[in-house]
Amino acid sequence: MTTATTPPGMIDVTIDGRALRVPAGTSVFDAARMNGIAIPTLCHLQNQTPVGVCRLCVVDTGARVLSASCVRPVEPGMKVSTDSEKVLNARKTLLELLMSDHPSPCARQEQSGDCELETLAKAAGILESGFQKRTVARGHDDSSLAIAVDHDACILCDRCIRGCDEVKNNFVLGRMGKGYSAGIAFDLNSSMGDSTCISCGECMVSCPTGALTNKGVVGTAIAVGPGAEGFEAEDLLKIPVFKGVSGTFLELNRGAVVKRRFRQGEIVCREGEFGSTAFYILEGKAKVSISTPIAHVRTQGGAKGLFKRLTSTLVAREDDKREEETRDRTIPIDAPVDLAYGNPVAELGPGDLFGEMTCMNFYPRSATVIAESDVIAYEMLRNVLDIMLKNKTFRAQLDETYRRRALENHLRGVPMFADLSPEFIDYLKGSVELQRFAPGQVIVQQGEAADSFYLVRIGFVKVSENYPGGELVLAYLSRGDYFGEIGLLGGGVRTATCTALDHVELVRISGDDFREMVGRFPGVRTGLEAIAAERRAANQQRMQMVDSVPIGQFLSQGLMEAQSLLILDLQNCTRCDACVNACADAHDGITRLVRDGLRFDRYLVATSCRQCRDPLCMVGCPVGAIRRRNSLEVIIEDWCIGCGLCARNCPYGNINLHPFEVMAEDPEHAGRKKAVIQQKATSCDLCTHLKEPSCVYACPHDAAHRVDPKTFFAEMLGQGSVK
Amino acid sequence: MRIDRSHRAWALASLAVFAISAAVYVIYAGTAPRGPRGGSAVGLIFGIVGFGFMIFAALLGARKRVATWRLGRAQAWMRGHLWLGLLALPMILFHGGFHFGGTLTRVLMWMLIITVFSGIFGAALQHYIPRLMTADVPLETIYDEIGHVRALLREEADRAVESLCGNIGLPKSSEGEVQRAGGFTALRPIAAAVVPLRTSAAVSAGASAALATAPEIILLSEEESAPLRRFYLSEMRPFLDHPKQSGQRLTDAALASVVFAGLRTLLTARAHATLTELEDICDEARQLTRQERLQRWLQGWLLVHIPLSLALILLGALHAVMALRY
Amino acid sequence: MARTRTTKKLAQRIDLNYFKRPTPLKRAKFWLSLLLPLLGLVWIAWRGFSGDHRVYSSGRLSRAHAVLDKECAACHVRQTGAFSARAEDNACLGCHDGPIHHASKSATPDCATCHTEHRGTINISAATNQACAECHADLKTSHPDTIYTSHISSLEDGHPEFAALRPVAGTPASDPGTIKLNHAIHMKPIRRGPNGPLVNLECGNCHRPIAVDADLTYADPKYRAAAVSYKDSEEFLPIHAETLKTPKPVSGRELMAPVKFANACAGCHSLAFDKRFDEGVPHDKPELVNAFLVRKFQQYIAAHPGEVRVQRDPNRDLTGKTLPPQVRVLTPAQWVVERTADAEELLWRKTCKQCHELTPSPKSAQRPIRAATAQGTDAQEVSAPLTELPYLAPAGITLEWMPHAKFDHDAHRGFTCVSCHPKALTSTESSDILLPGIATCKTCHAPGPGHAESRCFECHTYHDWSKRKEVTPRFTLPALRTDGR
């Protein structure tokens, strides 16, 4: 009621019998809040535009229906009741309805006990909803590195969407679906990890329930010691590359990045080592080189004496020419530069990021880096690198560095581009597109129109062809390889499907540019056609071998991927479990093999690590705890957090999680420890600490064998081995 | 185990040992002043050798317990067990000069004969049954887990029937047991909550839940689904629970296919996919029963062989001491 | 939705700790493996506590020792402080004496080498051939030129011909006896006595074992008092101390008694010496025969004094010989001498010589004849030239042809004599040895079933029973029937 005494711009209202005067435009909710009256909400956050979807904040304004106080502006003379029986009933019913769908206790309630919905429900005295629970689950989404999505707990309050759009301006989240199947979605309903989400953490921080929760990252990842210092979250926020990342999120991940100082001459990393970190140089210069002799092994026979063993020596290319080697190749390494064959040395400076492949895909270090001056660098694990790479500023910087320094070498590294003129190269540098692909993403599909030529900058690409029985992998391409030319040179249709196996970065040359290049430099065309013809012939040969029967089963069981299978000859096996017992004996009582699985011919392919050529298990470990040694066996480090991603990724179920009871801080009683169940992932490690796999050693009936499937089943699959 | 060409070395060596010891025995028995007896020098040597073979054979059990210790391959121990164990019988017969002697030695001799022959019988079983099992039970699983797998089969069947008939009052299993027989996992919370320790594998499976697409739900009306409900509740579910009870139609593969063919005529075409699933489930249950039976044969004879052999060693040692004493 | 199978789905059905869980099979294995040995131990312990060690016996006891079945300690004497309780020799010697075999043998085997106990209800004294062959298969003796064969393994392998039949130094063996006997004639129908009926003699008419009633068909008791060349005590055979014979009780039917004149010969061979007398001379030494003759004639002439008138017997006129006077009157003493000489001539030259070897010998005794008068008391020495008394070689009858082996005729009583002694039917020379050779024995005594026992112990014994010592008995009846000492 506006009386004469009411100043302009102010409105008089009555809330719960109290007369209040608030500025015009204030919402009922704010008016109440400013005067000490608390109204429960679920979808309203102070820093976000109110939308009034949850209806929990409804109040009785004397209208026909109850109004949502967060969006209803005050009107003069409004009489608001926030705790009448009608309002309370409405709230109670609402909470009950929401609780009926809520997976109580949800993740947040378990983690920190502060799920807003459950807290409100408890306060309202609702312990058990009277309504029927939903029968169809809406699913979980574990694909993001740091945030877990539980759609069942989502109450569609819109906070995350508003946080992503309004607060962080990333515009990743949105809504999808209608009615009962409505939900939040990332991009065009991709899973969170595959979307453009940059893991800033804003949505998680905004979510009132356990729909978006932090995937617990426990413990420090990189040891802090002399030469390396850790960061506090505030320090990290100051670094430009972390701009835009949620502070809470950084807080949780701060152990995954350290600042390192290297003195002149100190070795930063050695080639061939397996690692799980990337380096970003802040200051100083470092020399990157390959110190292994650039030579291959030649075996010579010992002519004298019957018992003289064959001796092997290393010989340089000049001394022993081999057909398949071409001259003047550059050696692709995991850095912004490639090394020249004749003189494999290059320099890295501030702003250079190296070790990406090692960090993202757990490949071994490709070169040795030695500090030429005093160097300050960040060493980081995957999760932090992921954040950095998703940061637009950082990405742009990286791309520019690549174009400037490495692209030309890379292009020249393709043998048939050696004849391109410098001007064309310059032109290409500006016109190529750098594309990133996530693991499993299809780059080109068999049968679609061909419009680009690709160079692989980082990662592995699988080239496969579909045939009536399934899919046949034709080749795996890695850094320095290229594809797409058959489609462009031929009929304009892709002849194979190319899929990214891990985090892949491609240099895309558009079809037009490609055609121009081929037109202006005939040498390129001849070279490409020759290669294309070769590839076609090889593919034909492979397709012929596909005709023999078992290969279908061989492929469908994924046996082609395996480099080592544990097979049990079922005609010898007496099902005595000696192999399982021996495995458990050698591994603290936890067996790494299960004597069940699919059969191939008369062999049971036991469920035990297959040392796949592309280790799908290693993709995605948030803490980089799973890696591979030179002898191919999979190692899971101590700091495995038991997230189960590797177990999920392994298509054969070879990795299992085991619960262990550990003592951890009791959240409810400070200073006390409580036994909690911590899980650890385990997998077969080929018993490299013993000379022979224990299962094979312990089988009394010559039934257990660790074999290379292609040589072992070679006869069955056709002549020769399948490559 | 297959007693095939790879045993050739052992077999030939054993034959050689047997031939040599037989020759020695014949000469010794012919010339010994008191006839062949256990206490003579040659007899004692036979006895020691035979007992040594028996002890080596008995040590196989101990060897299996420390499978990872590098004490020689399990295969070598197994073959040694087979062939040296077999040789123990003639050695002891030579030792006693084919006399069975007094009470203790008579008992020992019979125990040895039964042990060796039960071993031969068991070796034959273990030679043939794996092949039989491989051919007969394609859907084999781990014997110790058959009960659990059966429960999972029943779960799967329950869910399949429910997907057609709606809720028919079948009990839902507890959270820890929610796992389809084929290994599909129900959706579970990811949090590191208390995990049922029973199936740690289930946890890794649970962590895998990608966004599961909701299955297409075909619901039959009450009337349409009546035959299936009747059949399921009265016949199939009890069969899955107690597959070995006699008098069940589903125990026989031919009868079962007749039953299901009949059901197909009674139910609409939309239900046939589920019926095929149920039929496959029954087949898997039958195979598991067959596997159980075969496995019992495969390992049951050990209940005779092992205790007898242990008693044999114990009493044999006693005999050695006492015979030398007297 | 079709059921699909992937490795992952299959593996995830399995509880990863399944192999650690107990299963019925594992439980059964465990409990049975515990139970059965325990059962065995309990059984042994029960036996041990009840003091019954028979469970460790390696076979039934022999018939002879069957009474000791529960008395393990009778032989298995536990040395104080030691664990061993082997049955040593001193246990055997507690009841048995086993005198040594031969003084100069190289090594003494212990009792058990030949007498193996715990082999079932057998005859424990039946040693195996190998036991004997231990030494005899390659016998080492201190004498380099021993008469004993040095390589005997068994009856069929290396056993020599009987010593009695073996040639000595190239010459065939011969009977050392001096009595002249032609068996062949005796086996044909012959006359009993000079004028008697034809009789068909059987072996048993002359040869009988000593225990059998010696009332032979052709015996003449009158001659039984005669002296013989062997001692009376030796009639009961076997007696020779130095022979190695089994000490089993002798039935007296084992060997044939030496053939005595009184028992076998007297019935047909009369020792008549003069027509005036029916009786014959005693079958005795020549001196006694001479004395008998003299006495007889003296008695006669005293009873028939008219016979001193000796008429010439015209039948005895021989041409070329000086005829004695028609009638001679002799003194009684002369008459006795004459008659004695006549009788002796008959005897020495014909009757005795038929069987014995008589040689005139300076050793023959010359005794003056004490002539008895008609009065009968006064003996007057009559010196008259005496005929020399011949020397009779001792008969030399072999009492025992096989001193080193035991032979029992009684065991073979079913067989006819000539089936083993066929030479008796054809032997004409006294020097013939009518003992059957080893080949005859081997006809039945051979190894294997269907034959008679052929092992060494059947005929030979190891122990030299001449050196037998008596043992002190130590078992009492109650002690045997309780559970041993």
Structure notes:
The complex is a heterotrimer of chains A (723), B (326) and C (485). Chain A is an alpha+beta fold and 723 residues long. Helix content of chain A is 25%, strand content 23%. Chain A contains 21 helices and 39 strands. Chain A has a five-stranded antiparallel β-sheet with strand order 11-12-23-14-21. In chain A, strands 13-22-15-20 form a four-stranded antiparallel β-sheet, with no helix packed on it. In chain A, helix 11 packs antiparallel against helix 12 and helix 14 crosses helix 15. The N and C termini of chain A lie far apart (86 Å). Chain B has two domains: 159 residues, no CATH class; 158 residues, no CATH class. Chain B is built from ten helices and no strands. The longest helix of chain B is centred in the middle third of the chain and has 34 residues. Chain C starts with 6 loop residues before the first helix and ends with a helix. Chains in contact: A-B, A-C, B-C. The interface between B and C is large, with 59 and 59 residues.
Question: Oligomeric state of the chains?
Answer: heterotrimer
Count the strands of chain C? 8
Number of helices of chain C: 15
Number of domains of chain B: 2
- Report the largest inter-chain contact: B-C, 59 and 59 residues
Proportion of helical residues of chain B: 55-70%
Annotation, overall tally of beta strands of chain B: 0
**Chain-averaged pLDDT of chain C:** 79
Compressed to H and E, one letter per element, the order of chain C equals HHHHHHHEEHHHEEHEEEEHHHH
Tell me the layout of helices and strands.
The complex is a heterotrimer of chains A (723), B (326) and C (485).
Chain A: E1 10-15, E2 18-23, H1 28-34, E3 58-59, E4 67-68, E5 79-80, H2 85-101, H3 107-111, H4 116-123, E6 140-141, E7 147-150, H5 159-167, E8 173-176, E9 183-186, H6 202-206, E10 212-214, E11 228-229, H7 233-238, H8 247-253, E12 257-262, E13 267-269, E14 278-283, E15 286-289, E16 296-300, E17 311-315, E18 330-331, E19 339-340, E20 345-348, E21 353-354, H9 356-361, E22 368-371, E23 375-380, H10 382-390, H11 392-413, H12 422-431, E24 433-437, E25 442-444, E26 452-458, E27 461-467, E28 470-477, E29 482-483, H13 485-489, E30 497-500, E31 504-510, H14 511-520, H15 522-545, H16 550-556, E32 565-569, H17 578-586, E33 599-600, E34 603-605, E35 626-628, E36 634-636, H18 645-649, E37 656-665, E38 673-682, H19 694-698, E39 704-707, H20 709-712, H21 714-717
Chain B: H1 8-31, H2 41-65, H3 74-95, H4 103-136, H5 146-165, H6 200-206, H7 222-241, H8 253-266, H9 272-300, H10 302-325
Chain C: H1 7-12, H2 24-49, H3 72-75, H4 89-93, H5 111-114, H6 129-136, H7 183-187, E1 190-191, E2 198-199, H8 203-206, H9 261-265, H10 286-303, E3 309-311, E4 327-329, H11 332-351, E5 358-360, E6 369-372, E7 379-382, E8 390-392, H12 417-420, H13 423-426, H14 438-444, H15 477-481
Antiparallel strand pairs in C: 1-2, 3-4, 5-8, 6-7
Helix pairs in contact in C: 10-11
